[in-house]
Protein: PZP protein
Organism: Onychorhynchus coronatus
Amino acid sequence: KTEEKKLGGVIIYICISVQGGVDNEVSLTAYITIALLEVPLPVTLSLIRNALFCLETASDQKENHVYTKALLAYAFALAGKMDKRKTLLDSLEKEAVKEDGSVHWQRPGKEPEVDLPYYRYRAPSAEVEMTSYVLLAYLTSQPAPSREELSFASRIAKWISGQQNPNGGFSSTQ
C-alpha cells in the first residue's frame, strides 16, 4: 500500500507492507505516524496530533493484536508519551515468550518450533519485525531507558541476533 501526504508543499510517500498479518486502520495509522515522527516532524503538527489522538483511543482496546501493540508502543515512545508506552510495554511483557535468557513475541496460534537435529529454527519475518519494534520502544525513552529496561532490552536483542542467518541477514524482512 502507498500513502501520500502533503506537508508544507512537500509530498511524502510512505510505502507500507504490513508483515505481521495485521491489516487494520490502527496498524496503518501507527506505521504512518512512526514514519512521520522519524522524519522528524514535530508532535505539535496537527496531522501528528490527530494521528496520536486516534492511536491513544485505539490503544485502550483490549483486543489489540500483539503486533499492533508493538507498533503503538514505538509510536508513543517517539511521541514522548511515556505513560502510554509503559502501559503497552507492561502488557506486551505479559505476552512475551521467555526462554534461554532471551525474550521475543510471536503471533497468537503459531505452531510451536520444530526441534530437529542439524537444523536451527529461525522465526518468520513478522516475528522478527514485531520483536524489533518492541526493542525500539524499550530503547526510545525520554529520559534515557532505566537499568531494568536496558536489561530487558538486552534479552530482546539476544533473541533478534540469534535469528540472523549465516550471511548476517534475517528471513525475508523489509
